[in-house]
Amino acid sequence: MKIVLASDHAGFFLKEKIKDFLISEGFEVIDVGTNSHVSVDYPEYGAKAIEYILQGKAERGILICGTGIGMSIVANRFPGIRAALCHEPFSAKMARRHNNANVLVLGGRLIGDGMAIEIVKTFLTEPFEGGRHERRLNMIEALKPK
Question: Which domains does the chain have, with CATH numbers?
């Protein structure tokens, strides 16, 4: 599975830990930055990662900023993206099973490395249940602003 990673400066160190873990587990990793802890604008990096998913160059994404809120807002601006901000494994489990989330968002200043790895493991291994959840996702996709 190809995973695209992106972070801002506040998520840089956690992104590097997650990247090392993913590579050790045999995932193909596409890292679109940032490449240091020097201040950058998270929308630029989040949007770059999302483009990889929308173009079929990655199957899932992991975005990290200080709280995860900014990256969540960026990712969910794009049709077909279902980004879930998760702080523990149960949220990641339900995001995959019920929402078929294709992007995991983490808060680099809120969770430790060990918890982040457990969340990532859950996000990458849980299946989508389909059924009534598929119907609900179709309802969400059909929503249009008035």
Answer: 2-142 (3.40.1400.10)
Q: Say whether 9 is catalytic.
A: no
pTM of the model: 0.96
- Checking if the pLDDT of 25 tops 80, the result is yes
Q: Annotated catalytic residue: which of 86, 87, 98, 133?
A: 98
Q: Which residue among 65, 86, 87, 133 is the active-site one?
A: 65
Check if 65 is active-site: yes
Report the phi/psi class of residue 33: left, alpha or beta, with left for phi > 0 and alpha for psi in -120 to 50. Answer: left
Task: Give pLDDT, residue 16.
Answer: 98
With residues binned 3-state (H G I as helix, E B as strand, rest as coil), the percentages for the chain, rounded to 5, are 50, 15, 35
The residues with which 62 forms a beta bridge, in sequence order, are: 5, 104
Q: How many CB atoms lie within 10 A of CB 17?
A: 17
pLDDT, one tens digit per residue, over 110-145 is 999 999 999 999 999 999 999 999 999 999 888 877
Q: How far apart are CA 43 and CA 91, in angstroms?
A: 24
